[in-house]
Amino acid sequence: MKRTGKQISSNKLWIAVFAAMIIGCILFIILFKNIGGRTAVIYQDGQEIARIDLSRVTESYTVPLDGNVILVEPGSIRMQSADCPDQICVHQGVLHDAGRIVCLPNRVLIEMEHTKDAPDAKAG
Amino acid sequence: MKTTKRIALDAMLAAIALLLFIVEAQIPPLTAIPGVKIGLANAVTLAAVCLCGRRDAAAILFVRVCLGAVFAGNLSTFLYSAAGAALCLAVTCILCKPLQKTVWVLSVFGAIAHNVGQLLAASVLLQSAAVFWYLPYLLIAAVISGAFIGLCVQLLLNRLPRGKEEKR
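YS: structure for the whole thing
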């Protein structure tokens, strides 16, 4: 193996780079955690299925989808059940005012609508 | 390397990769974040790029992704893993020369590429860019699991007899 001048092989340098990256990601997560609103929007295959203002929900009810069941309760929304083996979306827990739940196998997305850039959420 | 030997070696590596992939699919998800996993099968891809060359590694990866979907997945998991694997392989092949000495760094970049590829596939399938909110979580996971897998491969390569990897 020939070494041509300065080869990128410094472990310490890379550890520093990746550590900085992890810290950056954690900061990003903390900073952008609370962006959201009170309106939950449910998409499947990119199509908007429902738009629910959680603050106006008085009685809990379920939204059955193709493969998933979504439970809407006063002030919160969560995935009640899914037909996929890993159940990641069910374990993602309850949404109150921020965040999102995604089910990759059935292409379902529940998102708390952003107050500012709501139309952009469908881009892509 | 003689053709017969090469075919045998590639087939064996593909079998190992497939086995790791299936075993890993049985492990319950570690976190509630979609796409986070250890990436055991990527160890074989990485070793194959270093030992057998890029073309063979691509063939091994192709076999693993296709058969992996048959044994432990469905069409949508196939699409995610194919997108991730393709980007991961591309990045690994591009960087394998400059990062030859530090396989763990190569592995981290491969893991990052894999997760970005998966997110791209997910954003196409869900027709929403919202999945990119998971990118920071996935980057953290990629650094940790990539470094772990990379160190494993580095140790493995140190123990394998070198000098045999002359391509044909």
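YS: worth flagging: Chain A is about 20% helix and 35% strand.
IM: good catch. Also Residues 61 and 72 of chain A are 5 Å apart (CA to CA).
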